[in-house]
Amino acid sequence: DILWDIRELIPLVFLHCKGKSPHWENQEFADIERNNCADSLACLSYLMFVQHFGIDCFPIVFSPSYLLQCNMTHIEVLLKRTEESILSKGLDLFESCLLRMEDNSLLHQYLEFRNFINVPQDLVKVMTLCPIEHLRKKSLNILQLFIDKFDAEGKYTLFRCLLKTSNHAGVEGYIIKNIKDQIHLSLTKARDNIWFTGHHLISLLDLVLLLPEGAETDLLQNSDRIMASLNLLRYLVIKDCESDNQTGVWSTLAKIEQNFLKPLHVGLNMSKAHYEAEIKNKKENRREAHSSNTVCSVTVSGEKMPAMTTEMQLQVLHSALFTFDLIESVLARVEELIEVKIKAVLDENS
Q1: In angstroms, how far is CA 56 from the centroid of its own chain?
Q2: What DSSP designation does 307 have?
Q3: 235 in Cβ contact with 185 (< 8 Å)
Q4: Is 35 exposed, middle or buried (0-12, 13-18, 19+ CB in 10 A)?
Q5: Phi and psi (nearest 5°) for 299?
Q6: pLDDT tens, residue by residue, 261-285
Q7: In the chain, domain spans
Q8: Residue 147's Cα: distance from chain center in Å?
Q9: What are the backbone angles phi and psi of residue 307, rounded to the nearest 5°?
């Protein structure tokens, strides 16, 4: 009944949610009212656009992108909460708004709105910090939906933003995989995409093909990002001939070797030597101990692991060595491909 009474004013309610509120001498009361107002409007939006309560009273002249813009404030309010019931409402509302839109239809200019940057960052926090598994998985699916809706420049801008702000190797690896997919589309389509070829791509690769802390980078903690970067570089070397150089990777090969490949070699050697020494040390301690079930602690990737038996610690250390071997094998393959391509060009020119 309330929705029916306000009818044409509903869009104004969504647009002017920060409207005037009564003057409170006590700032705490003012903050409580403002927060309650934001929560109430966010829940009203959820009821309308997800549960479809009173949706027949809502004007149907607005575009899906405009409705997304109006709802981003409410989505942000809900995603900042930690209660499962409220957080899930935020995810449902975001998903509902995105599903109304066609892929590649959201203009990059929308990223000039603060909420369009804040909300994906909130999604990343849910993906990486939320203790509830199904919400983590759902937030990842919604992030992909959000990426898919943008035009090429929007995707490019969003990738740069998330690479700089996520501070999580798994998320960075996921974004790098998305970059690879966009490059593939650019190279296989008849129409050129300037954002994922040429100098724009080179600028993006500067953020991707490097180790955050050089040879001192914790390779185990950053393994997802490193593997995604190596797979991207392998794809570029295979797909883009040096004579074409559509991606620009061959022009910037010296920088890639300096910032990524060489430090990675050094880091792998250091890390493998460290973990092999740890394994040797644990085995010697085990022989000295009265029982192989002696409980002790170990530090991996800068974090102290829960109390484990020596056997369990050895399994963790061997698993780390396996990860380093995997990275090393892909690195060797990438360098082999580069060498073969360069030799082929030299033979052709001689």
Answers
A1: 37
A2: P
A3: no
A4: exposed
A5: -110, 125
A6: 999 999 999 999 998 898 888 887 7
A7: 1-17+31-150, 165-287+308-349
A8: 10
A9: -55, 130
